[in-house]
Amino acid sequence: MNRALRRAGGNAGTYAIFLAVSLLVLYPLFWMVMSSLKTRYTIFENPFAPPTSLNFGNYARALSEGRFGLNLMNSAIVTIPSVVLLVAISALAAYAFARLRFRGSKGLFYLLLVGVMVPPQAIIIPVFQVVFRMGLLNNFVGLILVYLSWSPVAIFILTTFFRNVPGEMFEAAQMDGAGIMRSFWSIGLPLAKPALATVSIFYFVWIFNDFIYPLVLLQDPEFATIPLGLMQFQGIYRVDWATQTSALTMAVAVPIIFYMFFQDKFVRGLTAGALK
Amino acid sequence: MTAQTAGRVASAVPAPTSAGGGARRRRRNEALVAYALITPALLAFVFFMAIPMLLTLVLSLFNWTGISLGSLDFAGLDNYRKLFADQQFWGALQNNVLFILLGMTGAVALGMFLAVRLERAVPGSSFFRGLFFMPTVLSTVVIAIVFTFLLSPVFGIVTPILKFVGIEFKQGLLGDPNTALYTIIAVEIWRAFGFAMFLFVAGLKGLDHNLIEAARLDGANDFQIFWRITFPILRPVTLLVATLVGIQTLKLFDLVYVMTGGGPQHASEVLTTFSYSEAFNYNNVGYGSAIAVMLLVITFLLTILRFKILPDSARDETGSER
Is B137 domain-assigned? Predict the structure, then answer.
């Protein structure tokens, strides 16, 4: 009796803490959505007040004047090929490291592992120079090529994965006359699907939200991705919070919707990516 | 899916293998295929990561505006001499250290606290767990802009709240050199605690509930249970999370760049923003590179530390994830 009561009390305390933290997490986002529905002027009256009427015109303005549509398209053009190619080249390399014997295997693997440690922010100056000298500044191809150098994280995760697949499965296929590529394609890849999904989500979040590389490599506003566009928009429309919060709301909607549907995969992807 | 593939393979009739010199040819073939498979990843890595890393080192030895290759001017260690005498560098480094220590402590403490609470599995705890992780998924630029609005001295919500409890900042928390850095650190904790929490949740899987129940029957209070039972289990994870969050915080650029640009009066400058503005705003490519080299050195030291403390934890964790 006493214990049950104490547990109930403990639960109430736990809920109080959870609700307080939830409020801290959600209020900034709630405020953003609320502000996006106010008029350009009422937004400055009482920051806590709910909107008096729903002004979806802000969203239309964010899409047209704010060029949010253009930014979204640019983000898609950069993110989708980058993630697909990254996962593809990483899976190929990981398969070689895990299942094939060749000279220099260990050395090359450790060389790539160094890449896991390098912070992209610390090499941005020469990356700019390399891309600039290649004539790929303000070109999506340049940025995508740079993102392809982020493969070490995926190679590490996928190599561990391929190593843990029982060797008999591949041997059986080889007995069957399947070549290396056939057994990669028909056995390795299907088995690796969950790991590939994890890695894809990790890269999707990383690249979709990346700021410093587009900032340096896509200086023409015509090519701005979402984070960059939001930043430039803030500079231009410093006083138009209603339009800006509309753009911000649309910008977070994409990852949040994905997150709601694939929560477990997101968590696994982001933690695995960080742990390497 | 897996069973299906296995079944298909097992039922296949083994083909006769070719005898003799075929084995050597196969081995050579295997190596060739392996090199071909690695080449795309390796090329991108070499051109856009390995070479830039070396170039950072090389460029730090030159004075250069970054435009004409002909104007490269070898300066030896001049940039480093200048760097070590530069007040702004030491200021940025100090801010980085503060950032790492406070950000790490905040995210680790809050993450651990919530993970332990979540461990009780009250109804709805998986919902809260998912909610707390959400900021990790969001773009740091969006977070930075939203918080800049909230913190705006005139129209934001933070100023009236602070005024209500009797504190007044005329330029707002971000406009005041005394508070700008700490405010950004708080936002970083807001962004990162859910990530730390999840690693602790994973670390708590080995917790023995019978042990806790028994301790409770013996009259142990919550604090004793945490200190004697839960925390020892979490100690290795704590070190791991702390170094991971520390490395992450060291790399932080977006929040500072968007919220204050390193200001006011460099009060919130960190190495990443310092290096960026030297190279891209003032065209001091060599000097900016020297700062970046410092960043690389610190990252490597932290990474070595992380593997020294916990040589195998990373492998175990990712292994058990799947």
Answer: yes
Residues A52 and A75 in one domain: no
DSSP state of B71: G
Q: Quote the tokens at residue B242.
A: 């702390």
- Per CB-CB distance under 8 Å, the chain A contacts of B131 are 22, 25-26
User: What's the number of CA atoms in the CB half-sphere (13 Å) around residue B236?
Assistant: 15
Output the pLDDT for position A8: 62
CATH code at B243? 1.10.3720.10
> Which residue, A59, A82, A106, sits at the end of a domain?
A59
Shortest CA distance to A51 belongs to which of A65, A69, A33, A64?
Answer: A33
Separation of alpha carbons A68 and A41, rounded Å: 22
Residue the block writes with tokens 């610390």: A122
Using CA coordinates, name the residue in chain A closest to B140.
Answer: A209
Report the domain count for chain A: 2
Which stretches of chain A drop beneath a pLDDT of 50? 1
Q: In which domain, by residue range, is B136 found?
A: 94-321
CA distance B234 to B116: 10
Q: Is residue A102 less than 8 Å (CB to CB) from chain B? A: yes
C-alpha dist (Å) from residue B33 to A96, A159, B306: 8, 16, 35
Mean pLDDT of chain B: 83
Q: Does B202 touch chain A (CB under 8 A)?
A: yes
pLDDT value at B319 more than 60: no
Over chain A, what is the mean pLDDT? 86
Q: Is B137 on the interface with A (CB under 8 A)?
A: yes
Please give, rounded to a whole number of angstroms, the shortest distance from the CA of A67 to a CA of chain B.
Answer: 16
A182 shares its domain with A106: yes
Pair (A127, A48) in one structural domain: no
Query: Domain for residue B314, yes or no?
Result: yes
Q: What is the pTM of this model?
A: 0.87
Say which of A186, A211, A248 has its CB closest to residue B140.
A211
ipTM associated with this complex: 0.90
Query: Are residues A180 and A123 both part of a single domain?
Result: yes
Per residue in B163-197, pLDDT (tens digit) is 778 777 777 788 888 889 999 999 999 999 998 99
Whether residue A162 sits in one domain with residue A47: no
User: Which amino acid, residue A192?
Assistant: A
CA pair distance A245, A230, nearest whole angstrom: 10
% of chain B exceeding 90 in pLDDT: 39
Which of B219, B196, B93 shows the shortest CA–CA distance to A3?
B219
Q: Smallest Cβ distance to B9: which of A92, A102, A169?
A: A169
**Please, what sign has the CA dihedral across residues A66, A70, A74, A76?**
positive
- Domain annotation covers residue B85: no
pLDDT of B16 > 50? The answer is no
Residues A194, B156: C-beta atoms closer than 8 Å: no
Domain range for residue A24?
Answer: 2-59
Would the CB atoms of A172 and B34 count as touching at under 8 Å? no
Asked if the structure places residue B145 within a domain, the reply is yes
For the segment B123-148, the average pLDDT, to the nearest whole number, is: 90
Q: Cβ distance A109 to B39 under 8 Å? A: no
Q: Looking at the complex, does the CB of residue B31 fall below 8 Å from at least one CB of chain A?
A: yes
Domain count, chain B: 1
